[in-house]
Amino acid sequence: MKTYFKILFVMTVIAGCTQQVKLEKELVNSNKRWWKESIIYQIYPRSFNDSNGDGVGDLRGIIQKLDYIKSLGVTAVWLNPIYASPNDDNGYDISNYKEIMTEFGTMQDFDELLKGLHERGIKFVMDVVVNHSSDEHEWFKQSRSSRDNPYRNYYHWWPAEKGKPNYRWSFFDEKGEAWKYDSITNSYYLHYFAQKQPDLNWENPKVRQEVYSIMKFWAEKGVDGFRLDAFQYVSKDTTFPKLPKNFEKDINKYYGMGPNLHKYLREMYDEVLSKYDVFAVSEGAGSTLEDAHSLVDEDRKELQMAYHFESVGIGNKLEGYKLSELKKSFTKWDTSFAEKGWISIFLNNHDNARVVSRFGNDSPEFREVSAKMINTFILSMRGTPYIYYGDEISMTNIHFDSISQYKDIAAINGYKKALSEKKDMDAFMRDLNFTSRDNGRTPMQWDTSTNAGFTTGTPWLPVNENHKEINVAAQENNPNSVLNHFKKMVKLRKDNEVLVYGAYKLLDENNEEVYAYTRTLDGKKMLVLLNFTNHESSISVNAAKKIESILINNYSDLINKNGKITLKPYQSVICSIKN
Ligand code: NOJ
Predict the structure, then answer these.
(1) Backbone torsions φ then ψ of 568, nearest 5 degrees
(2) Is 267's C-beta closer than 6 angstroms to any atom of ligand 1?
(3) Which of 109, 199, 283, 368 is catalytic?
(4) What is the tens place of the pLDDT at every residue in 365-411?
């Protein structure tokens, strides 16, 4: 009798587990979306490939490289803004949303590019910059011309007779002031970014209709996704109350998630997103996990994917970072989004210095292995991975010494501000040298020729000297290159749904050297081991006793003594595990 109950108990447990697995499977299956399975390659168009020798990358330049992009295996491309722009902030200051920037080409070039991508099975993500426009946009020209102009309300104005408006901090202003006095109408206008980037007034329904019309224009052309620039800031309390001292230290809390943001996102969803097979990802995700969920959970009918900054910022300290901090951040976000919502996975973009210089090790000895390790990491996490152009070949920081070498408005105006505040300028320059956005914007390194094959003219930003060693041509022919490792890793992800949807479990949480985790789906299990240090490091995890095969490795072997694994400097492996 006892045995009978034992068997019954075991059977019930097994049935329970099977039921659980079935439920999990159903949940994953019903939540599958093409954009969750995407691998997004981000191109900074100014720096990718110049087809006409003016020193600036352009759309035809990208068209020439379509087969290269295809060869990477990536499934979507996000281009930074390509609209008409005076380029105060390299295209993030738009003067016409339905035209292409002259330096980048024509609308015909755009159509050809989109067609070329689609013919190769690659989707296209358009950058939408509508928290602000350029001050050279016709709307702003009209708006500033008189107080009763029909476009006046397209922007935020504060009449000077009411006194100075309450302080607002600006990201790029040389004085850090977001209100700019304009004598034409004796009023101040608001610019969270540079003076030439006035903030649009989203509280005005006409502005919102203009934005939806812009998005529809591009959706009708066939774009597959939208990346919404600085979007969490669009809705504002237009009484502009006084904010606490030092509010800028926690800027997203005060500028993000404004009073009507959800209302506007729902409206955008109804008017645009729901009508096309597109996804939208907003830059920034509020300041809490709850904020992020409120933006992207499917039942909210707002956005589809969160793009938060917590992890990417960890690598910005000159003195380095602690691996536990990185693990904590990635694990926290994964756990929170395990069942609902979806996140982006990235450690780099055009607003950061190079990933291998910040998170890996760009010394000649370790650059390649550490770059492969980082790519293994990004491409083996749950969420949609974004790879910034050049990271597939381990491009590094350029290291400018003098402010005259910098082109980025954030660097130049930041320098002026630090100078006027009598900051320690040596410390400022050391930090800039490491973290500047220009580090990550140098031209793509195609080959060993002059200017790395990027242009026949004078490049708008110098090409890194190290293009003689780090370039696509050399790496394409080397089976052990960072580039070929990247392609293998992309293929591994595409061939294994477990790397896309599988549950993530952190192992050996407090290990400061090795990042270890498993991914599990439908009885399939993978173990990922990443040594984040420049020396050997060992780790013992149970899963290592059940290794079936090594699926990718940035070294030729793996030392495994009965579950105790010794990883070489920056060694990264993914193994399949008996479940
Ligand atoms: C965020 C973009 O990523 C950055 O490059 C730009 O400077 C600001 N938004 C302003 O548009």
Answers:
(1) -75, 170
(2) no
(3) 283
(4) 999 999 999 999 999 999 999 999 999 999 999 989 999 999 999 99
Q: Whose CA is nearest to atom 5 of ligand 1?
A: 351
Angle, CA of 80, 39 and 22, to the nearest 5°: 140
For ligand 1, whether the C-beta of 255 sits within 6 Å is: no
Is the per-residue pLDDT at 525 higher than 60?
yes
Helix, coil or strand: residue 438? helix
Task: Spell out a b/e string for 195-218, using b for 16 or more CB atoms within 10 Å of the CB, else e.
Answer: bbbbbbbbbbeebbebbbebbeeb
Q: Rounded to the nearest whole angstrom, what is the distance from the C-alpha of residue 430 to the centroid of ligand 1?
A: 23
Q: How far is CA 109 from the centre of its chain?
A: 25
Average pLDDT for 335-341: 97
Distances (CA, A) of 165 to 242, 249, 252: 9, 20, 20
Which residue's C-alpha comes closest to atom 10 of ligand 1?
92
**79 neighbors 63 (Cβ within 8 angstroms):** no
**Mean pLDDT throughout 135-164?**
98
Could you read off the pLDDT of 60-73 as tens digits, one per residue?
999 999 999 999 99
Report the pLDDT value the prediction gives residue 365, as an integer from 0 to 100. Answer: 98
**Beta-carbon-side half-sphere exposure of residue 328 (alpha carbons within 13 Å):** 10
> Does residue 103 have an active-site annotation?
no
DSSP state, residue 443: P
Cβ proximity of 156 and 147 under 8 Å: no
Q: Give the integer Cα–Cα distance in Å for 493 and 382.
A: 10
Q: Is the CB of 171 under 6 A from ligand 1?
A: no
Q: How far is the CA of 229 from the centre of ligand 1 (A)?
A: 6
CB-based contact 308:255 (threshold 8 Å): no
Confidence of residue 30 (pLDDT cuts 50, 70, 90): confident
pLDDT at 26: 72
Beta-strand pair 225-228/279-283: parallel
CA-closest candidate to residue 117, choices 222, 212, 231: 222
Contact call for residues 121 and 114 (beta carbons, < 8 A) = no
**Does ligand 1 lie within 6 Å of residue 302's CB atom?**
no
Can you tell me the distance from the alpha carbon of 509 to that of 570, in angstroms, rounded to the nearest whole number?
A: 18
The closest-lying atom of ligand 1 relative to the alpha carbon of residue 92 is 11
Q: Which of 229, 368, 392, 438 is catalytic?
A: 229
Q: Is 199 a catalytic residue?
A: no
Give, in order, the Cα–Cα distances in Å from 180 to each of 92, 151, 158, 183, 441.
19, 18, 10, 10, 29
Dihedral in degrees, nearest 10, Cα atoms 488, 491, 495, 499: 80
Alpha helices in 277-366 (DSSP H): 289-296, 323-336, 355-358
pLDDT of residue 5: 59
Atom of ligand 1 nearest to the CA of 349: 3
Tell me how crowded residue 299 is: count the other CB atoms within 10 A of its CB: 7
- Site to probe by mutation for ligand 1, drawn from 46, 173, 351, 388 as the one with most ligand atoms within 8 Å of Cβ, is 351
Cα→Cα distances 466→50, 260, 334, Å: 19, 48, 36
Strand partners, 179: 190
Whole-model pTM?
A: 0.95
